[in-house]
Amino acid sequence: MSELFQLSHYVRAEGTSSAGVHLYHEQTGTSTVISPQTLELLKMFKEPKELDSLPNQLGFPHLPSVLERLCKDKVLMPVRHQGEDDATVGYCEPPVVPFLLTPNVGTRARNCDLVFVGVPFDLASTGFSGSRAAPTSLRRWSQSMPYRINNETLRPAGWYCVERNERILEGVTIGDLGNFKFDPAEPLKDIYQRITEFVAQSFTGSSFPVFIGGDHAITYPIICGLTAGPVGIIQFDAHTDFAELHPNREHHHGNVMRRANELAQVCAIYQFGVSGYFPRFRLENKQHVVPRIVIRDPHALETLIERMPADLDYYLSVDVDVMDPTFAPGTGTPMPGGLSPEELEAALAAIVSKRKIIAMDLVELNIDRDFHLNTCMTAFHVLASTLGTVFKYRD
Questions:
Q1: Which domains are present in the chain?
Q2: Tens of pLDDT, residues 170-191
Q3: Which of 187, 321, 373, 393 could make a disulfide contact with 331, Cβ separation 3.0–4.6 Å?
Q4: 3-state secondary structure of 382
């Protein structure tokens, strides 16, 4: 049986010009110009097809070379055969460039210690959109730290951290499942449901998943699929994300924690770095707000951590807007007076070294507003440092 190909879910038509129809690939960030005739050809690939099964009566000039170009530009993507034992089938597209250039991509990533997943979703943003491009941008930036195997131990070499005078992630296998795929025309509730199904099917073992958004709305369906047992949420964010639920928009990035607060398995939500002004403010039953003054006082932070249940599993969610816009301008809802990268790193290290983190996400990195990729660079550095601490103290 020949390989099946299908129109990529990440390809969008941007418009037309005298040169032809302009397509934009949201995963690779590249543009392709095609003729109207080629656009009609692509419509045939809304359903999987074999390249050599196209009828000769199409009368399409230079058809083989056109198809080759569409595959090279990732406009047409191969489809895995039905029945393959892979929980990511139907859910993820392979990354153009994997995190840390790991060779463990797709099915090879499933049994790794640390597994990255991109969730390029920003349809629930009430601010500036653009965070959908973050997974690909972070992957590209991560190439500066390529994954290596120690030739003597035949185990992952990890990286030497100068500030800590130690190696991080040594012996930790790293994989990349790719990007969760969806159609922007899908109802949002269907997208959230498929995220939950994907997480529930993909992470049943001992792997530590890291979800790269996307906007903060992804946290709720991830937690729904991750565990049915008791879990606490540790959130670093300039906002509480407890906006009121409205019938016409029940779930967006500004009320994601109010939705999480309703889940039976969520026991507590600890919100670090919240700032700003509110017309009305009332703590909900599971909500604990930790202002910046506590984070900046090591003794106060240590006292707070000791009050957090030690026998509870925790999900960590980091919104980059918790950092001051001076350091992290690339976000849709920036807030002045936020944490510095050093303060954020120190607070994360203090918490994850004392409490069991079972998974995490990094959200709201908006590449469209990121000057000189400062936020991308800073977010990746914080992420690498935090993961180094997670695995240093992981059982």
A1: 4-79 (3.90.930.70), 92-392 (3.40.800.10)
A2: 999 999 999 998 887 788 888 8
A3: 321
A4: helix
